[in-house]
Specification:
The structure is a homodimer.
Chain A: E1 2-6, H1 15-25, E2 31-36, H2 38-47, E3 56-60, H3 71-75, H4 81-90, E4 96-99, H5 103-114, E5 124-130, E6 135-139, H6 149-167, E7 174-177, H7 188-200, E8 204-208, H8 212-215, E9 220-222, H9 225-255, H10 263-280, H11 282-285, E10 287-291, E11 296-300, H12 306-321, H13 324-331
Parallel strand pairs in A: 1-2, 1-4, 2-3, 4-11, 6-9, 7-8, 7-9
Antiparallel strand pairs in A: 5-6, 5-10, 10-11
Helix pairs in contact in A: 1-12, 4-5, 6-7, 6-13, 9-10
Chain lengths: ~350, ~350
């Protein structure tokens, strides 16, 4: 099994991507195809003092899509590392592709090159989130804005396939993110989707609130990508900033009347920081799969360092070995019951 | 100066509200009017072993709006504690009213009884949020769903008046919450609002992301109430659950190969927990003012205990003494420049 990896995508590419691939090569069964400027890749490898392992091959591509490039221009680069990496899956030379690069270009490459699963209107990005009770899925975390009710229903179906494939959870529960639990809550689109989900999703528990995201009582939380993206980034910000915030408070305390905190206390804070990062940091999850397409495409965080890249490759291998696409096709094999429209 | 307080609203009413009013009475200059079933209020006071202070008076109201009651039924209760508390402001007997009760009924009472400030289309709920750099405002946190672009513009204007009155910050910066910083990001409504804000708001910094909420580089973050409510509750959940989450991890560690964490470590965790709560807990902020109405209305959290009630009363007194309504009228004194519509 082979994973194609966009060597040129991400804020710390190609160095961090190459480092990540070297780490992954030691841990996974699959081999890795690094796609990008071969010369650059080889130069970075030797700078890293690494000999290219047998299980990593390099496929040259001449163009690079910059992180901030307009999508229209990015899509015209036919020999970009993103496009070539996706093509390797299309042609059957690889089973999955991974990129930390330009998110719009990666999603477009996934959809255009691999195609959508029949019945899927809009593919979506999903992510696993750590909760008190284990692991849940949040979908969509940024592929779509202005989702229609039927898109939210499809996100629920995709979420089911995702959670089955990712954590082997059968009969997962599904909740729809809203501004309250009662049926009268929700904006217009959410209310319409609530009705669709009631009619079509087994184990649909209804609306869930912001506080439920970490609680873990629901396996899959469905939302529009505008909201999902804000939530995800807020969570990342919280994890990153909380230790700094507390440290500032402690400094404030020690400048004031109280005694300076003890060394034990300070090292405990480091420990706390480590625990928070280990459990909430996106680097540990590696990436978000683009769901609803005919193949495996993992979009990593732009700020990924080597560990995050390695974990994204692990995720890609896991899905490539597993039943993600098969479960997805099953979910979309029958047309949805639309039911009565909600009158507002 | 007098603050009217709905004694019957909230999950722990009337007990927690009465306790909160007793705490506040010792700290504030204003007197408090407790509104609700006089008999119940007096019974709870004596159960608490408290003698009613001079600075607290009781106004009897016969009806109570339950937390989960449909709004249509709630609004028919003309002698409800919420309505009577609002009427006291209308008639000039009190300068502000505070309720931890049914949020829809409180907002309706505020808008219907006190009226909107000329030019305001939809009042909004604002809240102060702690950040790395100090304090920011988030608006709307739940009064409105499906806000139109012009509503988001008005939230920015209200936010300006709010932050000036609340933390005396002049020339505050304003950001619009979106799924990315670039101009091409945003859903349809947000893009249109982006254009309006550019044309009308001094110190508008453009789109901000979820990670910026805690960062504190922007004084006012504007969003639709559907999103704001989800964010607020997610933040609350994070604060509440993070210590539990970490504790579980530690228990997991100590059952595994590692040594059981030391007592120092455990007590540091308590300390951390305390610091998080002191800085992020809604109980410390007390409540969210309903902005855009002709008077001061503070909506407290339904789960408020005595400290939160006390802090909501403090907030009400602060705004009643200050320049909130005056600043609000100034913000709405000139019609907005609509500019060219955004073509998507």
């Amino acid at each position: 099994m082979k994973i194609s990896l966009d060597a040129m995508g991400g804020d710390f590419a190609p160095r961090a991507v190459i480092e990540g691939s070297l780490l992954a090569a030691e841990e996974i069964e699959s081999s890795i195809i690094l796609v990008g400027r071969e010369e650059d890749i080889r130069a970075h490898m030797s700078e890293l003092g690494a000999k290219k392992p047998e299980s990593i091959e390099i496929v040259n591509s001449t163009e690079v899509i910059d992180m901030g490039e307009p999508l229209s221009r990015a899509l015209r680069k036919r020999d970009s590392s993103i496009r070539v990496a996706a093509n390797l899956v299309k042609s059957g030379r690889a089973e999955a592709f991974v990129s930390m690069g330009h998110s719009g270009a990666v999603m477009a490459a996934g959809i255009i090159t691999l195609g959508k699963i029949p019945g899927v209107e809009r593919p979506a990005l999903a992510t696993l989130i750590p909760t008190i009770k284990g692991t849940s899925a949040l979908i969509d975390v940024g592929a779509n804005v202005d989702s229609k009710p039927v898109n939210l229903l499809q996100f629920a179906l995709m979420g089911r396939a995702f959670i089955k494939a990712a954590i082997e959870k059968e009969n997962p529960t599904v909740g729809l993110l809203s501004n309250g639990e009662e049926d009268i809550k929700g904006n217009d689109i959410t209310k319409q989707a609530h009705n669709l989900l009631k009619n079509n999703i087994t184990n649909y528990v209804g609306y869930v609130e912001g506080k439920d995201i970490l609680l873990g009582d629901v396996d899959i939380i469905v939302c529009d990508g505008f909201v999902g993206n804000i939530i995800l980034k807020m969570g990342e910000g919280f994890v990153e900033l909380l230790p700094r915030f507390i440290m500032k408070k402690i400094e404030g305390l020690s400048e004031g009347e109280g005694a300076r905190p003890s060394l034990e206390y300070m090292s405990s804070l480091d420990e706390f920081d480590r625990l928070v990062r280990e459990n909430f940091d996106y680097n540990q999850y590696g990436g978000a799969p683009l769901l609803g397409i005919n193949g495996i495409c993992i979009l990593g965080h732009g700020r990924s360092k080597a560990t995050a890249v390695k974990n994204a490759i692990h995720m890609a291998e896991g899905f490539a070995k597993g039943r993600l696409v098969c479960e997805m096709e099953k979910e979309f094999s029958k047309p949805p019951t639309l039911g009565k429209p909600v009158i507002n």
